[in-house]
Amino acid sequence: MTYAIFGATGSVGKALAIELAAARLPFRVVGRSRERLQRDFSAYQPYVTYHVADLADPQAAAAAAKDVDTVFYTVGVPYTQFALHPQLTRIAFEAAESAGVRRFVHVSTVYPYGLPQREPVDESHPRNPQTFKGRMRKEQEDLVFAADGRAGMRTAVVRPPDFYGPGAELSYVQAIFAAALGGGRASVIGPIDTPHQFIFVPDLAKALLALAEKEEAYGHAWNVAGPGLITVRRFAEITFAAVGRKPKLFVANKTMLRLMALFNPFMREVLEMHYLWTTPVILDDSRLRHLLPDLTKTPYEVGIPATIEAMRAQRTVPASA
């Protein structure tokens, strides 16, 4: 059995590589830069092989899927280019079909649910996104669902909340970690006393690998919730306490975001998703826990200090390493 990670150099791909290597399972990492693939994954020999491909190219994607049993699709795009999501996903699963891939596991997000109609949100909740990014993510999921059973390939969709942990540079809470370690003030989006969920990225990787091995997982979407609810304020308190400091935060409210969005395209995209700070999607993953009763979640009080230690260790690695 051979696995491939499409979009391997992101934080989820890196965490998956750790799990696959620990299980002594052969896997292929797919990305656009051989230098970066070798830098990020050389520690996982002899289980890892490298494959350089631009996944926007159908022929390159098909070559990346050749002789692979299971594809983990973890490809990210810039926040200002979400229209690429369904395009790249279509190329990926068509490549997987043509290569005879048996299983395709797609990592999605909470965006397709849109504004939550109830709390918590299980998989039966309507997908009714009110935002462009939510519609692009829903279109992406629809393509994956439609591909299930075609050419003998089974597909599954996994929806986590925002994740944090080693290598999760694009997480919303990454600014809190950076400020704690750098001695500065973290810029965060308010309100900061609304309960949220975050998942430790190694936990997400464990769930993805465990799901991939269950035939019952395919043809369905699965929520992967965090270990519990936490506010951004409390998250910051735990993070700063891990370095022996009191939290220092600059909180941007919606009015501030509107002003920044006048001059900053990225902030315009953030503004569209502001409902997630006022009415967050709280996931219910009871179905997942029934299927995977041994699945565990790392408490915030453990995962946050572990992330700090990983970031400290990374800073001590020479740039040429």
Question: In summary, what is this structure?
Answer:
Helix content is 41%, strand content 14%. With 321 residues, the protein is α/β, with parallel strands linked by helices. The strands form 3 sheets. It has a 7-stranded parallel β-sheet, with helices on both faces. Strands 7-9 form a two-stranded parallel ribbon. Strands 8-11 form a two-stranded parallel sheet.
Walkthrough of the structure:
The chain has a domain at 3-169 and 198-226 and 281-297: Rossmann fold, CATH 3.40.50. The chain contains 13 helices and 11 strands. The protein has helices at 11-22, 34-41, 58-65, 84-99, 132-147, 174-182, 201-212, 232-241, 254-261, 265-272, 275-278, 286-291, 300-315; strands at 3-6, 27-31, 48-52, 70-73, 103-107, 154-159, 162-164, 186-189, 198-200, 221-223, 249-252. The chain has a 7-stranded parallel beta sheet, with helices on both faces. Strand 2 (27-31), helix 2 and strand 3 (48-52) form a beta-alpha-beta unit. Helix 1 packs across helix 7 (201-212), helix 3 (58-65) packs across helix 4 and helix 4 packs parallel to helix 5 (132-147). The protein is globular and about 50 Å long. The two termini are 31 Å apart. The model is unreliable at 317-321 (pLDDT under 50).
